[in-house]
Design brief:
alpha/beta; 10 helices; binds coenzyme A
Length: about 260
């Protein structure tokens, strides 16, 4: 794994330089998170594809303030993909990151070869208690985050993610959730023509499988993976199952 920076956006890559003969998975994390989410993918999938896992602006490896809209984050991702000349990019996101991936597929139909949408939806309204909790008592909000995972998930698996979330400034996390709350592309999914893998966690309470059902039926070319005993953080909770679904999808669509 190699850590690099382009235009103020920091990222890790499974191998560097990127291999021009392979597709590139561009991994996008969720609200208040970081690229630590994808540690079970970046190296494990690097033999099959290029893997690039970035920190969105405002946290971790990435400079500057956070943003408050999914289209704004999508533009930052577009700039990075262009700067590193990622070959045949595939937008792969979870939650907020899944919203960004959808925005990229909608806004740039010719730029991204495919999408992978994990624990996300075409509309991402946020419980007012989450928005208020971040502003009123960020520590308490952070300590409630392990609820995002399945009750069956070993809490040790979540530790690096929770530690990384704790380093995200409250204002940046709030901006992420406000970006989700304003997001709604339910009426536009029919515009997407590239193949899309939809992954849901059976125990996901934050973006329930119903959201994935809607993506699966509304996007023209979809494959679906439904992961048992996983919650909202399936790439970390069930990395082998998620990676198997990703490789199966890539094989099927020839990327
Ligand atoms: N895909 C498919 N259906 C969706 C959807 C999506 N992405 N988002 C919402 N819907 C459906 C809901 O299930 C609901 O259907 P129903 O009327 O048949 O029950 C309807 O659209 C309206 O839901 P919503 O837009 O979410 O508004 P709401 O006022 O009913 O609920 C919340 C607001 C915040 C309570 C609710 O969205 C929620 O519980 N969200 C999940 C928890 C959360 O905060 N997640 C964080 C995501 S980053």
């Amino acid at each position: 794994m190699e850590t690099r920076d382009a235009g103020g956006i920091g990222f890790t890559a499974g191998t560097w330089p990127l291999d021009a003969s392979k597709s590139t998975l561009v991994f996008l994390h969720g609200s208040g998170g970081s690229n630590v989410l994808w540690h079970g993918q970046v190296d494990a999938l690097a033999g099959r594809v290029n893997t690039v896992s970035l920190d969105l602006p405002g946290r971790g490896l990435s400079a500057g303030p956070g943003m408050r809209s999914i289209p704004a984050y999508a533009r930052a991702v577009t700039d990075l993909v262009a700067a590193i000349e990622a070959p045949r990019p595939i937008a792969c996101g979870l939650s907020l990151g899944g919203g960004i991936a959808l925005q990229l597929l909608l806004d740039q139909p010719d730029r991204f070869e495919a999408g992978i949408l994990i624990g996300t939806g075409a509309r991402l309204r946020v419980m007012p208690a989450i928005l208020e909790g971040i502003q009123r008592n960020y520590e308490a909000h952070l300590s409630s985050l392990d609820m995002a995972a399945s009750p069956r998930t070993d809490r040790e698996v979540l530790r690096p993610i929770l530690e990384s979330n704790a380093r995200c400034p409250a204002e940046v996390a709030l901006g992420d959730f406000l970006a989700c709350d304003a997001f709604d592309v339910m009426a536009r999914l029919g515009e997407i023509e590239v193949p899309v893998l939809v992954v849901s966690g059976a125990d996901d309470k934050l973006t329930p499988p119903k959201y994935a059902d809607f993506l699966e039926k509304s996007i023209r070319r979809t494959q679906r993976a439904h992961i048992a005993d996983a919650g909202h953080l399936s790439p970390a909770e069930k990395p082998e199952e998620v990676n198997r679904a990703i490789v199966g999808f890539l094989d099927e669509v020839g990327l």
